[in-house]
């Protein structure tokens, strides 16, 4: 591991860093950055933006480190995004055990973030906001440190003896092999974020009245089930992360959180979903059902009137219910890695969607009504069964990215030249893309490039 990191650091030193302000937590003061002031200046992220930033951050971290390093590596990030969607600051801290050169690890992580976020922007940020997240790679518990002036506690021992409990807003009890959540959490009445993921919790009952300001609850990678999870009624919790547990259905306790906007249940085997599952969830904006063994999406999902982000990646869906078109506020729809043969005929009712991921399915045509989805900016139809170019694609006027990779187009689709607006076009993996493609289709490719369309083939 050390040899790999040393080689990577050597490459990093040879490459000039871009202007992205990526700073290790230990260098914040040296860089003249006031972390507390930043936290006050930037708003909390909206659900869709939070998801977008956290997914990007997770991808960068996953690509930067081995899949299961031992000891494990935890990366704590504080990300500040401006009104245009670009990052102003990314402050990170690495927590790990012995066996790593901390300075080398910091440099490697910094380089990964600088290059990973280079040119990347959040879609439709609206106003500047911040995201705080922790991502752990590997299973072994890590050594934790408390930074002076921070508003976080990162281990159980410190939580038990910490004196100024009123100032603590974040409590990290992840990866501690906990079988029960200790009552020490109630020592911090101003707690806003509680991280207890990657433990061995089988049952949990939290009295939210004793945590009157708790906004985020992260319980991923435990052993919680529908019969063992309870929350008391509250109006503060906005994000609930229950990924990779043992839930079969949306737990009834979820409906106790009246202000909940973000619900993540990916990685559970949600085989007991029914129309009743979606009752009292009208306030949820972001729903994650990633890799949840869902073969039929119940019609009752239409009850989630305020849903903006729906993630159905890696399931067993062959169709989408027509009732999904009742989700009029939806902006992000991800149905990739399923077995879907057709999109809903009235998909145009989802007029606010600007991001649609439907790659790795069995689509061979598009519903005519899709031409009325004029807010589409990103459309990914890669790895489907298209043989004939869907003419509907020429109707979009705001499209920025179109992915048609690995379909079955025998020749270059001439209708692509009629597309009015596009920035990136992906055509890799189609039968017509051969070694002589650049020469054979030089006219078509030249015409696309003359419109400043970046073509990947």
TrEMBL record:
SUPFAM superfamilies: L domain-like (SSF52058)
Entry keywords, A to Z: Leucine-rich repeat, Repeat, Signal
Recorded superkingdom: Bacteria
InterPro entries per UniProt: Leu-rich_rpt, Leu-rich_rpt_typical-subtyp, LRR_dom_sf, LRR_domain-containing, LRR_R13L4/SHOC2-like
A GO cellular component annotation in the UniProt record: cytoplasm
Signal peptide from the UniProt entry: 1-18
Every Disease resistance R13L4/SHOC-2-like LRR domain range: 333-451
PANTHER family: LEUCINE-RICH REPEAT-CONTAINING PROTEIN (PTHR48051:SF54), PTHR48051
Name of the protein in question: Leucine-rich repeat domain-containing protein
Organism: Dyadobacter fanqingshengii
């Amino acid at each position: 591991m050390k040899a790999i990191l040393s080689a990577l650091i050597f490459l990093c030193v040879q490459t000039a860093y871009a202007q992205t302000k990526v700073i290790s937590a230990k260098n914040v003061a040296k860089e003249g950055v006031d972390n507390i002031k930043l936290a006050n200046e930037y708003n909390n992220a909206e659900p869709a933006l939070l998801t977008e930033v956290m997914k990007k951050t997770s991808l960068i971290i996953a690509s930067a480190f081995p899949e299961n390093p031992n000891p494990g590596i935890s990366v704590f990030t504080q990300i500040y995004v401006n009104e245009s969607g670009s990052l102003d600051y990314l402050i990170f801290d690495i927590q790990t055990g012995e066996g790593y050169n901390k300075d080398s690890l910091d440099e490697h992580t910094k380089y990964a973030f600088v290059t990973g976020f280079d040119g990347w922007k959040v879609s439709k940020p609206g106003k500047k906001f911040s995201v705080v997240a922790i991502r752990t790679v590997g299973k072994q518990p890590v050594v934790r440190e408390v930074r002076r002036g921070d508003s976080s506690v990162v281990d159980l021992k410190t939580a038990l003896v910490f004196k100024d409990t009123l100032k603590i807003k974040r409590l990290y009890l992840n990866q501690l092999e906990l079988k029960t959540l200790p009552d020490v959490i109630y020592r911090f009445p101003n707690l806003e974020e509680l991280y207890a993921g990657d433990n061995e919790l089988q049952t949990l009952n939290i009295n939210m009245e004793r945590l009157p300001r708790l906004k985020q609850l992260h319980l991923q990678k435990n052993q919680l089930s529908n019969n063992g999870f309870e929350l008391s009624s509250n109006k503060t919790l906005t994000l609930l992360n229950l990924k990779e547990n043992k839930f079969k259905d949306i737990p009834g306790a979820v409906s106790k959180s009246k202000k909940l906007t973000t619900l993540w249940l990916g990685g559970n085997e949600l085989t007991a979903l029914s129309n009743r599952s979606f009752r009292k969830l009208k306030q949820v904006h972001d729903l994650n059902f990633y890799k949840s063994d869902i073969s039929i999406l119940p019609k009752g999902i239409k009850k989630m009137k305020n849903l903006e982000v729906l993630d159905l990646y890696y399931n067993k869906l062959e169709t989408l219910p027509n009732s999904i078109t009742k989700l009029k506020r939806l902006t992000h729809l991800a149905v990739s890695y399923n077995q879907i043969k057709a999109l809903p005929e009235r998909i145009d009712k989802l007029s606010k969607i600007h991001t649609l991921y439907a790659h790795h399915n069995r689509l061979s045509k598009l519903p005519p009504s899709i031409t009325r989805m004029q807010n589409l900016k990103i459309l990914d139809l890669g790895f489907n069964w298209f043989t004939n170019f869907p003419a509907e694609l020429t109707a979009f006027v705001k499209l920025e990215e179109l992915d048609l990779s690995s379909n079955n187009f025998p020749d270059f689709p001439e209708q692509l030249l009629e597309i009015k607006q596009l920035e990136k076009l992906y055509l890799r993996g189609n039968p017509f893309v051969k070694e002589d493609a650049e020469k054979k289709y030089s006219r078509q490719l030249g015409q696309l490039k003359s419109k400043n369309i970046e073509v990947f083939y």
